[in-house]
Structures are given as C-alpha cells and as structure tokens.
Hints:
The protein has nine helices and eight strands. It is an alpha/beta fold. It has a single domain (8-223), classed as TIM Barrel. The chain has an eight-stranded parallel beta sheet with strand order 1-8-7-6-5-4-3-2. α7 links the parallel β7 (172-176) and β8. α6 (158-167) packs parallel to α7 (184-190) and α7 packs parallel to α9. 43% of the residues are buried. The mean pLDDT is 97. It binds 5-O-phosphono-D-xylulose (5SP) and cobalt (II) ion (CO). 5-O-phosphono-D-xylulose (5SP) is lined by residues 12, 14-15, 37, 39, 71, 73, 144, 146-151, 176-179, 196-200. Pathway: Carbohydrate degradation; pentose phosphate pathway; D-xylulose 5-phosphate from D-ribulose 5-phosphate (non-oxidative stage): step 1/1. GO terms for molecular function: D-ribulose-phosphate 3-epimerase activity; metal ion binding. Belongs to the ribulose-phosphate 3-epimerase family.
Amino acid sequence: xxxxxxxxxxxxxxxxxxxxxxxxxxxxxxxxxxxxxxxxxxxxxxxxxxxxxxxxxxxxxxxxxxxxxxxxxxxxxxxxxxxxxxxxxxxxxxxxxxxxxxxxxxxxxxxxxxxxxxxxxxxxxxxxxxxxxxxxxxxxxxxxxxxxxxxxxxxxxxxxxxxxxxxxxxxxxxxxxxxxxxxxxxxxxxxxxxxxxxxxxxxxxxxxxxxxxxxxxxxxxxxx
Length: 224
Ligand SMILES: O=C(CO)[C@@H](O)[C@H](O)COP(=O)(O)O
Ligand SMILES: [Co+2]
C-alpha cells in the first residue's frame, strides 16, 4: 500500500477557556479538527504549568473517538508514559533535550501502544532529532520557545522543516507555535503537514473556516 502525506490540523487548547475543556474540545472537533494537541507542562522543562494525565483521562471519558496527541514539555518524559497511555492518549510527543536515552523512551511509548513524536526547541539543531527518525512516527519542529501560547512565529525554523522534507519525503512533520492564517504559507511551502494552531483557531470568529483554510493551504502544497 502506498503511503501518502496528509494535511492534518491539530488545535492546541492551551489558550482556550480551560474551565470548559470538554465543550471547547468538542467544538474544535465539530469544526473539523483532525486531532487535539494537548500541551502538558511541568513547570521545570518550561516556566509554565498546565495539566497532566488526570485531566486528559477525564477528557477521554467524554470524547471517545478523537485522536489525542500530548505535547510533553516535561523534564522526565519517561515518567508519564504509563499514565498517559492509561488515560487514552494516541500519540506521545516529547522533547528530546532533557532525555538521556531517547531510543528507550521511544521504545517504551510504542510498547504502550501509542505513536511516538520527537520534538525540538528552536535552539536545538535538526541533526539532534534526525537520529531518531527511524524509531519515531513524527518530528515536531517548535516555531516558538515552548511554554506559552500566543507567541510570534519564528520563520527561521523553516530551514529545519525544509531539510527534513527534502530528505524524508513521507515523514510526518509537525510545526507548533504562532501558526495561523498569516504564517501557514511558510509552513506549507517548507513541507510541514501536521499543523498545531492555538490562538489563531481559538480566537477565530469562524473556527471551521480557519481550520479549513489551514488544511487546504497545506494540502495544496503537498499536492504540488
Ligand atoms: O506548545 C505550545 C507552546 O509551548 C503550543 O502548542 C502553543 O500553545 C500553540 O499556541 P499558539 O502559538 O498557536 O497560540
Ligand atoms: Co504544543
């Protein structure tokens, strides 16, 4: 079977009204989101705190069939694999920077039945993550310093995306941070196919139209 790249839009709920987490998440899915990107922060790897597996588990209790990706901005990603798998996470994306044995973490994530994504901060060279492509399902190139939503898109990160796309034509490449209608062309032309977008979707007056625009821009670039 031939594998084709697919444009996928995963809204980040970080800047949503988290007191309405279920309603906000369901609305995003009803408006056409392909998956949910759940930002988990531990106050150590990044200077911010969000939520952990108990919250993800409650959300899974109400939303049975959507694809959940957790973006683990944590110092010890190995610590949360089992609870996140038990909470119903489909993809466990973690930062490689603080991890000694990335291969072991990837192996353990897969052993728990989840897909594995490897993420790098803007200051980390792409060669650092390239080493793990053969044992992971996706690479996340951060386009802001991890920790907060609503930051400015770093266009200089597109060189990493371009490099990966040129060398790995079928690799799932995700971008995250400051992505929205005004920056999607950059991401699409560089070769990203999985798009995380928080503020631009959450704050949009017409979420469905914004999600559709992001997806069609990326799909058009893939089809070129
Ligand atoms: O991981 C992060 C931030 O660390 C993200 O997922 C962002 O929170 C996305 O939000 P916007 O930059 O699109 O507002
Ligand atoms: Co994120």
